[in-house]
Amino acid sequence: MKNKADVVVIGGGVVGNSIAFNLAKEGVKDVVVLEKEYLTSGASGRCGAGIRQQWGTEMNCRLAKASMDIFENINEELGVDRDIELKQGGYLLLAYSEKEIEQFRKNIKLQNSLDIPSREISLEEVKEIVPYINLDGVVGATYCPTDGHANPFYTTIAYAEAAEKLGVEINTYTEALDIKVENGKIKGVETNKGFIETETVVNAAGDFAKEVGKMAGIEIPVRPERHEIMVTEKVNPLQKPMVMSFSYDIYCQQTPDGSFIMGYGPEDPPESHSRKSSWYFMEKMAHKTTKLLPKLEELRVIRQWAGSYTMTPDSQPIIDGSEDVDGFYMAVGFSGHGFMMSPMTGKIIAKMITGKEAPIDLDLTLKRFERGNLILEPSVV
After folding, report:
1. β-strands 169-171, 31-34: how paired?
2. Burial (Cβ within 10 Å: 0-12, 13-18, ≥19) of residue 273
3. pLDDT tens-digit profile, the chain (381 residues)
C-alpha cells in the first residue's frame, strides 16, 4: 500500500470507484481507494439495482438522467469490455390517490423539461405493459421507457478495472481508522495497514459516512436505515418494467437472468448498520407483491438480504467539498439511490477536486441543512 497519495477515496462501492476512475481520467496521478471489506460489500452489492429518472426534484432528475446516459455507453466511457447487464425495460409508477397523480403530473413536467421521456399513461396501457397487474385502487400511472436495471457488481468491477488501468491503487480489507487534520487542512489517513499522507480525502463510505465525517471533525446529517430485499427463482420473461408505487410502498422487477427482485420501505426504521434479514419482511413482502402482481404467487423465494439506505433530511445526496476542512469531499447520503446516480457523481467530484467546471450544475451542499435550504424529494420508497 502506498504511504503517500494525491487523493484517498474512502469506500469501495460503485460511488467510490466511479470517483477514483474519474479522478485518474482527469489526470490525478496517485489515487488510493480504501475498502474495509471487499468491493461492493456495502450498499452497492445489496441494492435493488434499479435505475430511474422519474424524480420529483430537479437535482435528482439531472443526476439520474446524466448517469443513465453514461450507463448506456459504459464500455466506451470506461474503455473496458464488460457486460453490466443494462436492461431498459422502463419504470411503471402507480398512483393510488388524486393527490399522488397530481404530484406525478408535476414531476413529468419537470422531467420532460430535462429531456427525460416520461409520460402519463392510461390504466388500459398499464394492463398492456403488465397484463397480470391488479389495478384495484390505482387511479393513474406514469411510465419512462428508458429507465431500467443494471448489475451493480459488474458495474462496480468495471469502474474498478478501468481505474486500475489508469494507475489507481485499490486496497480491500483496508479500513480507515482516523483522518489527520491540522489547522483546518487534511494531512493524511490512518488505516489498519499504516498511514497514508495526503491532502485530499473523499468520503464515499455509504452507511458509514457519518463516522468517516467525524474522523475529520465534520458532522454529516445522515442516518443508516436497514432495508430488505427478496429474490425469487429464475423464470422465463414475464415483466419488462420495474413496477413501483410510493404510496403502496413497493418495487418489483424481473432481472435479466429471470429472477424477480422486490422490496418495500420499512415504517419508522431505527438507525442501524444491521444486515440481518427477517421473517416478518418475507411474509409482508409476499403479501404485498401477490396482491399487486397475483401471477407471482406461483414463484418460489430463493433468498433475501438486508442493506442500508443512507438517508439525508431531504432524501437528496450530499455532493460537496467541506467549507470547514480544506481537502475533505463528500459523496454521501444518496437515500437508497447511490447506484443509479454513481456515474455522474464520480464526474462531478473529480471536477470539484481538480478545480474544473462541473458537467452539471447542482446545489447539494452540506451547508444546505444548516441554512434550512431543504428541497424534499417526494419520490422515495
Report:
1. parallel
2. middle
3. 999 999 999 999 999 999 999 999 999 999 999 999 999 999 999 999 999 999 999 999 999 999 999 999 999 999 999 999 999 999 999 999 999 999 999 999 999 999 999 999 999 999 999 999 999 999 999 999 999 999 999 999 999 999 999 999 999 999 999 999 999 999 999 999 999 999 999 999 999 999 999 999 999 999 999 999 999 999 999 999 999 999 999 999 999 999 999 999 998 888 999 999 999 999 999 999 999 999 999 999 999 999 999 999 999 999 999 999 999 999 999 999 999 999 999 999 999 999 999 999 899 999 999 999 898 999 888
The DSSP H or E segment spanning 304 is strand 301-311
**CA-wise closest residue to 107 among 380, 381, 362, 378:** 378
Name which of 373, 344, 255 is nearest 22 in CA terms: 344
What distance in Å separates the CA atoms of residue 141 and residue 107, rounded to the nearest whole number? 12
Q: Which cell numbers in the block locate residue 13?
A: 462501492
Report how far Cα 115 is from the mean position of its chain's Cα atoms. 21
* Angle between the N-to-C axes of helices 98-113 and 58-71, in degrees from 0 to 180, rounded to the nearest 10: 60
The domains found in the chain, sorted by start residue, are: 7-48+153-222+314-371 (3.50.50.60), 89-146+223-311 (3.30.9.10)
CB 90 within 8 A of CB 145: yes
Neighbours of 269 (CB within 10 A): 16
